[in-house]
Amino acid sequence: MLIIGNREVHRVLADREEDVLALVGDTYRTHEAGRTAVPHSVFLRFPDRPRDRVIGLPAYVGGERAAAGMKWIASFPGNVAAGKERASAAILLNSTEDGTPRACVEASVISARRTAASAALAAARLVHGPATRGISLLGCGPINREVLRFVKAALPSLREVTVFDLDAERAAEFAKSAGEDHPDLVFDVVGRVEDLLGAHRLVSLATTAGEPHMDLSACLPGATVLHVSLRDLTVESILGAQNVVDDADHVCRERTSLHLAEQATGGREFIDASIGALLAGTAGFVRDPERIAVFSPFGLGALDIALTRWVYDECERQGLGTRVEGFLPA
Questions:
Q1: What global pTM score does this model have?
Q2: pLDDT for 266-276, tens place per residue?
C-alpha cells in the first residue's frame, strides 16, 4: 500500500494545470462514451447537524489507464469560522486487475483541482464574444481560488477579478493572497452581490449555501455562470437559463437547484447539454448570446479517480509517498 500525503500531491500537481485540464476533458469524453461506472454518491448525514456531511463517491474509468476507487470527502461548513478547511478527503485507489487496495491518497487538492478544471473547461466553451478579460468570484474559499487558477490557464486573456464574500475580511484577504499568486491580475473587492454579478460576463459561484438564495437578474446579458456549489440559484433562474451539466442523473439529486427545478416542472427539459457532449462535439448545442448559460457540475467521482491514478503514477515514477508493508494479507 502506498500512502500519498498532501505534500506529495501538491508537489506532483504544481504547475500542471494544462495536464489536469486535458485529463479532466478526456475523462468527460470517456464518461460520455459510456466507458465509466459512476454509481450515485452516498451521503452520510448527522441527525443533530444537518449542514455537515460525509460523501462517498465510487467510480471506475476505462481506457488505457483504467482506474477504480472511492473518494470519501467530508464537508463541515462550520470549520471555516474555526479557522479550519471546510472540506477534507481521502481516496482509496484499487487495482483494476485483482481489486486490491493500491494507494490511499490525501484528496483535498485533487478534489478542488478537478472541480476547478471542469469549471474552466465549461467556461472556455460557453463564454462567447470578445476575449474574456474578467471573472467575478462569489465565495472566497479554496474552490474559487482553484477556479481562478484554472480559468486563467484556459482563458489566458483574463486580466480582472472581482470578488465578494459575506465575510468582508475574508474577501479582502482572498484578493491580497490571490493577487500575490497572480500579479498580472487586477483585483476588486465589492460589497454587494449585485455589483459582483454585473461586473463581468463570467461568474463563479462557490459557496456553502444549502438552499437557493439568489437570482441572476443582475448579470450581464449572455453571461456564463459556473454554478459550482449547486444550491445558490432559484428555480426561476435555472429555468430561464441555458443549462449545461456534467451528468443529469447525478445533478438532479440532493436538493440541488436543478433537482428543485426538476421537481417544479416534472422533467429535465430545461437541461440543454452535458459537458462531455460539448467536448466530444456531439451536443448539438447552440449558445444563445442573449441568454445566461449556467454550468452545474455535480462532481463525478470518475474525475477524482482519473486524477488520483495520474498522481499515483507520478509518485511511483518519482519515488514519492510512503510504502506500508504488511497492510494486505500475505
A1: 0.94
A2: 999 999 999 99
